[in-house]
Amino acid sequence: MLSLGRCVAIQTATVKRAARVLTVACTSSMATDPAKKRVLIVGGVAGGASCAARLRRLDEQAEITIFERGPYVSFANCGLPYFVGDVIKEQSSLLVANAAKFNKWFDVVVKESTEVVSVDRVAKTVKTKNLNSGEEDVYSYDYLVLSPGGNAIRPPLPGADLPGIFTVKTIPDANAIKSWINEKDAKTAVVVGGGFIGLEMVENLVHRGLKCSLVEMLPQVMPPYDPEVVEPVHERLRAVGVDLHLGDGVAGFEATPGGALLVKTQSGKAHGADLVVLAIGVRPETILARQSGLELGSRGGIRVDEQMRTSDPAIFAVGDAVEVKDFVTGEQTLIPLAGPANRQGRIVANVITGNEPGRFRGSQGTSVVGLFGLTLAATGASEKSLKRLGRDFRKVYLHINNHAGYYPGAKQIDIKLLFDPKDGRVLGMQAVGEEGVEKRVDVVAMAIQKGGTVFDLEEAELCYAPQYGSAKDPVNMVGMVAANVMRGQHPLTSWDELNLQELVSDPGTVLVDVREPSELEKVGKVEGAINMPLSSLRQQLSKLQDKDKKYYVYCQVGLRGYVATRQFLQRGFDAVNVSGGFKSFLQQMPERHAKL
Ligand code: FAD
Question: Which PANTHER family does the UniProt entry name for this protein (predicted)?
């Protein structure tokens, strides 16, 4: 255990005594060895704990202290929804490490329930307050690492502080929700916000037997994703009985005389519930940074350089509190995810100790969420973000089995790949399905980080046995489709680029459905399309005269459309395949779906 002198406390005083204790500047006579780096870390969870452990592994001499405002360091906040849902049964399972372990394994002093209340950048000290005793201390540092995370947003709406309205950020938050459910015998819940925490909370509340409504202001859940990609998530939520209210923001909350809550929305609706979970995002925690005059970025996070250094060279910042560079688009962004926080924490330790890697590459926002048997994952840029930035891109939709179709249990994955039409550089991928989704997204995440192109995906050598994949893995396949587009061998468009009404009424264009008639009868077709089944297309094309027309070809998922398009082209017709076929049509035009 470190002694107080060796650890860097230079002034200890309770609040009551504080006034008469001298403000003592840190000197070497305080038993602090000037040769040893004194590192203070604010926040002891993802970024902070990761930084402390790495620091110790690299520097046995450093004096490392973590201050954590909450009662636990290094807890698994990502597990909280599953703890609420009783999937994770024991609270102890959420404690990845505790103060004693940090002390024994890493010789790191951990001060739990201790808030850093101010930073004096000139004196290089921080002032702390023990939240149980009120005791205040001052510690000096050579390096200060800020990893204070983000704050769950509680909107300034009428009734937002009513009992029974919760956010989910800490173990005490999760315990409060669990106690409320048990004590009130809660049967219904409204979750506000359809991001990944909101979705995980919905799944877990349903798992506990509660009837759940999800209210989301945008017309889709998972806002960073493109709308058509999350359409299967909407379907799944509805299929399991979740009341999904999209495109309707919350206007306020009311308590009913019977003890329930009402969530009132901007459209004038009111959803009753026994409890409400607010999951509308996190805001970077920047109080210390602002108070001490550190620069903030345009998105409201702490500004850092590639070494995670703030505008003060002795202060680093990591995790949800910082702005980072988007790896693909280069713009400043906020990525509140555990992976970047952990890696940034390590990088700070490397920088402080002069080790590699000493540079954060930027974040791709690689993310995954699972709900009700579906997995939704993405990496890199979305179409929305590329459009917002005016970036040129092309896209490919693919609906493909996760493993060989002949091996039992194959499940379809819906994939959307975005790439640069200039050089085929991969810009982003989103995928949804029941099996093997995140594995494909992870492969493409690595390709993006290495500046990979669709030609690299085409040639990627990946695992294959029938129960795991296909000899041409979905990653290869999406690469092949895109590479064929790049080579001009596969003219491709997508439903959202077409004006269907014009297309089918224009005598110069023809919409061709190449599926078999029995399929059309079973699943429907796009209005105005003519049916030329692939199985007899050669014969039909040999009789077809209209070479002046343009043929828009589609099938069920895109593959037969491609095969047919090649036949059209090689016989001198102008043809283009509609990416993703009828399946993409249904996902991109859900309102038409309803009319079919
Ligand atoms: P945190 O891990 O939040 O730690 C910050 C700590 O700093 C807090 O404990 C806070 O108490 C402390 N602190 C703040 N200010 C002070 C102060 N002044 N003095 C002392 N201590 C202070 N990410 C994923 O990638 N995948 C997931 O599945 C996932 N699931 C999540 C589920 C939930 C419910 C939540 C809340 C988050 C989830 N995340 C997930 C996000 C992930 O947990 C965060 O991105 C990550 O923890 C950020 O790390 P951090 O170190 O920046 O902040």
Answer: NAD(P)H SULFUR OXIDOREDUCTASE (COA-DEPENDENT), PYRIDINE NUCLEOTIDE-DISULFIDE OXIDOREDUCTASE DOMAIN-CONTAINING
